[in-house]
Amino acid sequence: MTATDHLLRDLAPIPARAWEEIESEARSRLTPQLAARRLSDWSGPHGWREDRLSVGRVEDIAQPAGGADGVQTAQRRVLPYTEIRVPFTVRRREIDDIQRGATDADLDDLRRAARAAAITENRAIFHGWSAAGIDGLVQVSGFPTATLGEDCQTYPAIVAQAVDRMRGKGIGGPYALAISPSRYTRIVETTEHGGYLLVDHLTRVLGGEVIWSPGLDGALVVSQRGGDFLLSVGQDWSVGYTAHDAESVQLYLEETLTFRAIEPDAVIVLADG
Predict the structure, then answer these.
(1) Average pLDDT over residues 41-62
(2) Cα dist. 39→16, 24, 29, 168, 177 in Å?
(3) Buried b vs exposed e over 49-85: b needs ≥16 C-beta within 10 Å?
(4) 3-7, 48-52, 61-65, 140-144 — which is least confidently predicted?
(5) pTM of the complete model
(6) Do the Cβ atoms of 114 and 30 come closer than 8 Å?
(7) Is the sign of the CA dihedral 153, 155, 205, 201 positive or negative?
(8) What are φ and ψ of residue 55, in 5° steps?
(9) Which pLDDT band holds residue 169 (cuts at 50, 70, 90)?
(10) pLDDT for the residue numbered 193
(11) Hey, where are the domains in the chain?
(12) What's the CATH code, domain 5-54+78-272?
């Protein structure tokens, strides 16, 4: 979590101890749910004022009308950062109780906001966000989509085939399996013949981890060798202030980001079937 002047935190009627509790709760709720950022390289935070990521390429454009002969013109390609803001409310009585030493403050609306924030980031990376100019992992995959059946005992064979297909294209591991929460639960609850846990079998096949991934439909097998995907962040998730009245303080979680998929052959989509 970071703080910048535009967040207007100094105007909020929140003492230091309460700020610490709010930020700690936001961090503890966000971190385990930000699954998509575990699958990509990270760049940032670059600051609130940073507004784009260069992709290192140009596109030819026409020169200005009446320009001189023999001039070549091109425009550099960039991915603009997108702002995500999720409002939430904290009652002033809870703030007072935190100051008194309460360790069970009612911060349910913050928890709701943290989940909404995490799912928004995850879905942008997993499924893309056309309005933000983001192509997600599902969209860019260079392989035909495979299908996950309802019987999770078949998952090791399906995942092994996906890993072999990537290796055949020269994409090394380790590999990760990002999977929707409902299917993740089935995996961790399942024991194979011989008493082995299914999740342990999958981690051996992958040479990596199985990742609980809120906001993902189906599953993805992704190389974690590095250099294939980039999450670039201007401002990482931070708490800002909007307004207050006698009863409550209106706050928000905010982030600026973009995502770039560099190597389509480093991800295979396993769709629900």
Answers:
(1) 91
(2) 35, 24, 19, 21, 9
(3) eeeebeeeeeeeeeeeeeeeeeeeeeeeeebebbebe
(4) 3-7
(5) 0.92
(6) yes
(7) negative
(8) -100, 5
(9) very high
(10) 62
(11) 5-54+78-272
(12) 3.30.2400.30
Distance CA 235, CA 49 (A): 8
**Which residue has 């991800």 as its token pair?**
267
Quote the tokens at residue 11.
Answer: 């105007």
Structure tokens at 86: 């999720």
Spatial distance between the Cα atoms of 215 and 181, rounded to a whole number of angstroms: 8
pLDDT in tens, 13-33: 999 999 999 999 999 999 999
Half-sphere exposure of 47 (CA within 13 A, CB side): 3
* Token reading at 61: 């454009």
Radius of gyration of the chain (CA): 22
Q: Which pair of tokens denotes residue 37?
A: 């950022």
